[in-house]
Specification:
Largest sheet: 6 strands, parallel
Strand content: 15-25%
Bound molecules: NADPH dihydro-nicotinamide-adenine-dinucleotide phosphate
Number of helices: 10
Order of helices and strands: EHEHEHEHHHEHEHEEEEHEH
CATH superfamily of the largest domain: NAD(P)-binding Rossmann-like Domain
Strand order of the largest sheet: 1-11-8-7-5-6
Distance between the termini: 48 Å
CATH architecture of the largest domain: 3-Layer(aba) Sandwich
């Protein structure tokens, strides 16, 4: 039976450490890390995420600003707000909650966040730095996965790592981070032929596809480490991952549950990035 990787517990430990380091930094410099989260529209799931980000900031002793803008906000209005936040020296990190309403140009909005305040690490400059391995900020979810592996003393070096999913925010940066950690990395997607044959090779399997319970026990090698990034809402309202937990936990050596695995680490890494941005701002 697999060891359960307790993301909630690890996140709490890392957050306590971030809080301690932020307090030390504030005592030395007088600077309190500040995060602004911008939300446009009324998407209920986005509202929950934004509220949780704000709460996590306050718990860590950070300044937290939430900017709520109506659904009909124009590009000019949103870019104007980002300009204000860019000029605000008490704000070190700016995040625009996605998805944006359809009439807004997501790419242009992400590019309007200055790279030094881009704590989601979605700006093209930060994306490029990830490719080169020269990062200040790492995208929060893949960074959270790496932190979980570190905490569990799972060495990536030389291992067969398979990432299922190639999105810009999870799959691709995840593959780069595993590669930088000297894993042998394969990336799978919806056009991959014989997915199970590839996933069965993995010593470390990271799944981020957005399909409930998709990866089953027969697709996993005995003793593999399985990281489930997926967050899917079932018809009964319950949250479930991309991995069929029941059939995989009997094959894997370690597994992240959903909820309570990767999820809590994502906001934790957002705090880490905000602290990094605050530190960089006084250099
Ligand atoms: P996207 O929808 O952007 O990407 C999904 C990827 O999965 C695509 O690359 C797609 O391939 C691939 N895919 C889809 N179906 C299959 C299939 N049948 N076989 C193989 N590959 C497939 O999703 P995200 O990366 O944004 O998110 C993935 C999941 O992670 C979601 O459940 C999301 O909710 C969750 N998530 C969780 C976070 C957390 O904090 N825990 C944070 C962010 C996301 P192709 O490119 O060919 O279309």
């Amino acid at each position: 039976m697999a060891k359960i990787i307790d993301g909630k517990k690890i996140a709490a430990e890392v957050r306590a450490d971030i809080k301690r380091r932020a307090a030390e930094f504030a005592a030395e410099t007088g600077v309190v890390p500040g995060l602004a989260v911008v939300i446009v529209g009324e998407d209920p799931a986005s509202k929950v995420y934004v509220r949780n980000k704000g709460l996590a900031c306050v718990e860590a002793g950070f300044k937290s600003v939430t900017v709520e803008m109506p659904e009909e906000t124009t590009m000019d209005e949103l870019l104007g707000k980002l300009e204000e936040l860019k000029a605000d020296s008490t704000i070190h990190g700016i995040l625009v909650q996605l998805p944006l309403p359809r009439h807004l140009d997501e790419k242009a909005v992400l590019e309007a966040i200055p790279p030094e305040k881009d704590v989601d690490a979605f700006h093209v400059v930060n994306t490029g730095k990830i490719m080169l391995g020269e990062y200040s900020f790492l995208p929060c979810t893949p960074a959270g996965v790496m932190e979980l592996l570190r905490h569990e003393n799972i060495d990536v070096c030389g291992k067969e790592c398979v990432v299922v999913g190639r999105s810009n925010i999870v799959g691709k940066p995840m593959a780069m981070l595993l590669l930088h950690a000297n894993g042998t990395v394969t990336v799978c997607h919806s056009r991959t032929r014989d997915l199970a044959e590839v996933t069965r090779r993995a010593d470390i399997l990271v799944v981020a596809i957005g399909k409930a319970d998709f990866i089953t026990g027969d697709m996993v090698k005995e003793g593999a480490v399985v990281i489930d990034v997926g967050m899917n809402r079932r018809a009964d309202g319950k949250l479930t991952g991309d991995v069929d937990y029941a059939s995989v936990e009997v094959k894997a050596s370690a597994i992240t549950p959903v909820p309570g695995g990767v999820g809590p680490m994502t906001i934790t890494m957002l705090l880490e990035n905000t602290l990094t941005a605050a530190k960089e701002s006084v250099k």
